[in-house]
Design a protein that fits this description.
Layout lengths: L1 H9 L4 E5 L18 E5 L13 H4 L5 H8 L7 H4 L7 E2 L5 E5 L4 H6 L6 H12 L8 E4 L13 H18 L3 E5 L1 H8 L5 H4 L4 E3 L2 E6 L2 H6 L5
Parallel strand pairs: 4-5, 4-6, 6-8
Antiparallel strand pairs: 1-2, 3-5, 7-8
Bound molecules: uracil (URA).
Length: about 230
């Protein structure tokens, strides 16, 4: 049970449904008079964050991704500006119809300045191939442009500072569909604390763009059964 709970947390759920009925042959749940209700048990605290007022440079609108990248690539709005090696803006087709958004750069991305180039990125490439897409067809970005030290979860303040950059990328690209990879990206962009498991398999919307939510490729590497 512990392993199952751990897997669910890593896959992005914040709550699990536990069937508290005792299912024994001698005393089946209904017959024994026990409540047949399922109990929703919180297994991790949920977090939320507010969009703060945007600094001037973030609120400006840009004509192209290149102009935007130039304007923000030396960002020092949060402490990650001091610890990053490379600013990881995003990569792909500026006219992409489909945009993937992950959480934050990891060690490989921080070294190379490109999102999803490590093991999770290789799996993403395979997923794209199965969809008959290449990286040139789509656009890939993250909630954060800089790597959190030791790959820790992004902090609310970091996401507040960085999400407006992502929103400007979305405004410039105008994708027809956004696919959010993992709980952090999903909760951050959709401004919710709903568990990933509840968001999957449903349509969402960001501003006017339809959004779908799925597991992060890194989670699929750890739990291949969820592919
Ligand atoms: N994980 C992410 O969420 N983004 C990356 O760019 C790499 C790994």
């Amino acid at each position: 049970i512990r392993q199952a709970l751990k897997s669910q947390i890593e896959l992005g759920d914040h709550e699990v449904v536990v069937d508290r009925r005792k299912r024994t042959k001698a005393a089946p749940a209904q017959a024994s008079g026990e409540s047949s209700e399922m109990t929703v048990t919180k297994i991790a605290s949920t977090r939320t964050f507010e969009l703060t007022r945007l600094p001037e440079v973030q609120a400006r609108q840009y004509d192209s991704l290149e102009q935007h990248r130039e304007a923000i690539c030396n960002c020092q709005l949060c402490p990650l500006g001091k610890t990053r090696n490379k600013f990881v803006y995003g990569v792909g087709n500026p006219n992409a119809k489909l945009m993937f958004i992950g959480e934050a750069p990891g060690a490989d991305e921080d070294r190379l300045g490109e999102p999803f180039v490590g093991r999770a990125g290789q799996l993403l490439d395979k997923i794209l191939e199965a969809m008959k897409f290449t990286r040139q067809d789509i656009y890939i970005a993250n909630i954060l442009k800089c790597r959190p030290p030791n790959n820790r979860d992004p902090q609310p303040d970091e996401m507040n500072k960085c999400t407006p950059y992502l929103n400007e990328q979305i405004r410039i690209i105008q994708p027809k569909l956004i696919c959010l990879l993992g709980r952090i990206a999903a909760q951050a962009l959709l401004q919710t604390t709903t568990p990933l498991g509840k968001m999957r398999g449903q349509w969402h919307e960001h501003v006017v763009v339809p959004v779908i939510v799925t597991y992060h490729p890194a989670a699929l590497l750890r739990f291949p059964g969820y592919k």
